[in-house]
Amino acid sequence: MSDDVVPIMRIGDTLLVTLQGDLDDATVIRIEEQLTQEVVRTHAGGMLIDVSGLSVVDSFIARVLARVVGMVRLLGASAAIVGIQPAVAITLVELGVPMGHLDTALNAEQGLALLRRLRQDSTRAK
Amino acid sequence: MTISPSGDQDAGARLRELEATLDAITDYAIIRLDPAGDVAGWSRSAEILKGYTADEVVGRPMSMFYTDDDQAAGLPQRELAAARETGRSVFQGWRVRKGGERFWASSILTPIRDVDGAVNGFAKIVQDITVGRRTETLFNGVLESAPDAMLIVGSDGRIVLANRQVDRLFGFDRDELIGQEVEILVPPRFRKRHPGHRIGFFTQPQVRPMGVGLELYGLRRDGSEFPVEISLSPLETDEGMFAVAAIRDATQRRATEQRLQRQRDEILELSTPVIQVWDKVLALPLIGTLDTVRAARLTEGLLNEIADTQAEVVILDISGVPTIDTQVAQHLLRTVQAAALMGTVSIMSGVRPETAQSMVHLGIDLGPLYSRNTLRDALQLALALLAERAGAAATTLTRQERP
């Protein structure tokens, strides 16, 4: 339980999570536990999930990402996906995987800027 | 031709009856020869076929009906010897009529033996098969002179006939191929599946090209392969169904096609250029009709360029696209969605009034996509978006200036 499944880097109050390798059901559950606990433990304001290390992103992974983002938002932080590769983007659009509601950025740097904007938007909305 | 053995007919009457029967036969010349091979009996049919009367030939050697070449080669003697030895000698070849005209003859020579078994003469039956031979010659001529390699294959898959082009194309000698399974000419990697296709042809015989949409290969005697095109047609004969295969070397055509494909690829490459117009801004001027292949390549090229340059804004300029119908809009939408997944915003530019009208009339919805009339406006918007993104952290004021 205590051993980490994914490496997490902390930049200011933002967590940068790097997903790698094959993700099966059991691993996904452990990732969800690790990430939610980490958000609460660090009082993080945002989370970037880097998927550039994943060569395959299918509808299963897409659902996993949407779930994680949903959990992080419920905990009061904003979340975005970064590093979707060209081939992955084409596949997702062709498969018709709905990911329009997810916020995405090209890289971590632009992801941080995106999170800042998202946070401003949400504070203004309240 | 049975002779009644009843006693009330004398021998002379029976002989006359026999002669009458023989004379009634017209399609076959029936000739009796003495042991030396000289003419001893001459039927009416022989007279019709050869043109000589009995008086002109009886007592003369049968070699007089042969061509000079055959005579010189000693063919008449060989035939007689063969008949004496084996009891039968069958022959096909040129014979000469009275007056020198030739005809293609089929003859059977059988010895006549006396009660002691000694040969005391020969019976010879000759038929004029010039007409049949002409058809056969024509058939062979057509086969031989055909520009394509031609194979005739039986329903058991064995090669029955092959023309000269087959030798040339496959490097085999024809005699090596006759009787072999046609798979001998098929590369090993396709050999296992071929008999199934072959049987399929015989269950549904029709004129058709072989392996539509597939690249077919032939196997030469030396083991090398070459691309071929093959047309199949069924041949119905008294001996059953055969398949006629016309085989053409497609090396040249295949090479031409590949060159064309390469050129097409190059043109596609040229027709979907991605330009970096500003720091973090890409422009993609679309020209001509967007079909599925081009759209896929365009999307791929654009996304790779986004990955390379980390551009945050892409301008899709459609002023060079003649019509935006639902299909083209679909392609554009997919490109925009894929770019959005990577985190890049798209702006459409070059929308003309008539394009705007028709798109709305067609019910084309590009969703929340920025759109501008000119490239200049689009670039301005792109810079504004970039500034907003960069400045978002510094001040919240910019948000109120958003378009």
Please describe the topology of this protein.
The complex is a heterodimer of chains A (126) and B (403).
Chain A: E1 8-11, E2 14-18, H1 25-42, E3 46-50, H2 59-74, E4 78-82, H3 86-95, E5 104-105, H4 108-125
Parallel strand pairs in A: 2-3, 3-4, 4-5
Antiparallel strand pairs in A: 1-2
Helix pairs in contact in A: 1-2
Chain B: H1 11-24, E1 28-33, E2 39-42, H2 44-50, H3 54-57, H4 68-72, H5 75-86, E3 89-96, E4 102-113, E5 119-128, H6 130-145, E6 149-154, E7 159-162, H7 164-170, H8 174-177, H9 188-191, H10 194-203, E8 208-209, E9 216-219, E10 225-237, E11 240-249, H11 251-271, E12 275-278, E13 281-287, H12 292-309, E14 313-320, H13 326-342, E15 345-349, H14 353-361, E16 370-371, H15 375-391
Parallel strand pairs in B: 13-14, 14-15, 15-16
Antiparallel strand pairs in B: 1-2, 1-5, 3-4, 4-5, 6-7, 6-11, 8-10, 9-10, 10-11, 12-13
Overview of this protein structure:
The complex is a heterodimer of chains A (126) and B (403). The N and C termini of chain A lie far apart (37 Å). In chain A, 49% of the residues lie in helices and 17% in strands. Chain A has helices at residues 25-42, 59-74, 86-95, 108-125, and strands spanning 8-11, 14-18, 46-50, 78-82, 104-105. The model of chain A has no long low-confidence stretch (mean pLDDT 85). With 403 residues, chain B is α+β, with helices and mostly antiparallel strands. In chain B, 41% of the residues lie in helices and 26% in strands. Chain B is built from 15 helices and 16 strands. The model of chain B is unreliable at 393-403 (pLDDT under 50). Classes of the chains: A alpha/beta (126), B alpha+beta (403). The A-B interface holds A 82, 84-90, 92-94, 99-100, 104-107, 110-111, 113-114, 116-117, 120-121, 124 and B 299-300, 303-304, 306-307, 310, 312, 334, 337-344, 389-390, 392-393, 396, 399.
